[in-house]
Structure formats: structure tokens, C-alpha cells
Amino acid sequence: MENSSERYYTHEQKKYLLSILHKPSREVIDLFKRKYNIELTPCRVKDYRKYYKIKCEKNIGQFKKGIIPANTKKMYSEHISTDGYIWIKIGNNKHIQKQRWVWEQHNGKMPKDHCVIFLNKNTLDVDIDNLACVPIGIKNVAMNLGLLTNDREITKVGLILAELVYKRHKIAEENNIKYRRGCVL
Prior knowledge:
The chain has about 180 residues and is an alpha+beta fold. It has 2 domains: about 1-50; about 75-185, Homing Intron 3 (I-Ppo) Encoded Endonuclease, Chain A (Alpha-Beta Complex), CATH 3.90.75. Helix content is about 40%, strand content about 15%. It is built from 6 helices and 9 strands; from the N terminus they run βααβαβββαββααββ. It has helices at about 10-20, 25-35, 40-50, 100-105, 135-145, 150-175; strands at about 1-5, 40, 80, 85-90, 95, 115-120, 130-135, 180, 185. A 3-stranded antiparallel beta sheet has the order 3-4-5. The longest helix has 23 residues, at about 150-175. It starts with a strand and ends with a strand.
């Protein structure tokens, strides 16, 4: 079998290639290999399309086996994202993280610049007792200081400490006070 980068194409091969470039890359590679026993690479196919300004047909509506399109899922269906969070469908093409949805069901709309955190750091434990709504600034301080733990009670204390550090920083910032190693100068 010949490699496509090691040879020039005949007029007939170029003509055939141009006639099939509108098809998906995998199909172009297979067709060309069957007809001429020459292996094309996806990059080569892409380069030819770009050079000859040929657009590929879109495979609209085709999904990999086992993938269910989001718009066909039932209301309140759930899925786990690649980063480990549960998402829930709450409307037509509208999804929300489940921890936020659970928190809002119990407490009303979440305030602006706040987020819901897991007190035991388990992103699959969406029990209301494991959720806390905190300002993003306080969450960032708690994360930077390592105050979020696997223990709910210790994390609650850590959030109180993070709030104190955050407020101290804001007061110092307002009064133009500088810190060095945690001490006021």
C-alpha cells in the first residue's frame, strides 16, 4: 500500500479525489483506498478541501452509539458531566447543575456572585445538608487556604474563617493597608 505523501497523483486520481471531497473524511479515505490502494490521512483530506475550497457535508443528526441528544431527554433527567457534576434538564435545551437546583428549591433564587459548594467535597452528594451557598470571593479564599475538607463540620468552620480573612482583606484594601506574611504593616 502506498502512502499519499510519497507520490504525485495522476489526472484521473485527482479528478476522483475532487469528486468525493465533499463527503466526510473517513469516507473519502476509505473510498480512495479501495479504488487506488493509496492511504490518505485526515490532515491531507483537510488540506485538499482547504486548497480547493470544498466544504464537507455535515452529518447532521448522527450521534455515536449510546449518546442521547439533549433535546430528546425527558424533563428533570440527569447526567454526570466529565468533570463529575450532576446536571439536570429543567427546560427545552436548558440544563443546570443539580446542586444549584436543589439549593434553589429549598432557599429560593441564588444571590448574584454566589455559588453552591459541597461541604464534604463530594460532587455527587446533592443532599441539602451537604450544600452551602457562599459568595465566590469567600469560596476562593477557602480554596486557596485549603479550608474545604471531606468533613462537613470542619468545612463549615473553614468557611467562617475564610469569611473573616476575606473581610479583613476588604477592609485593608479600602483603607489602603498593605500586608506582609499575614501581618498588617
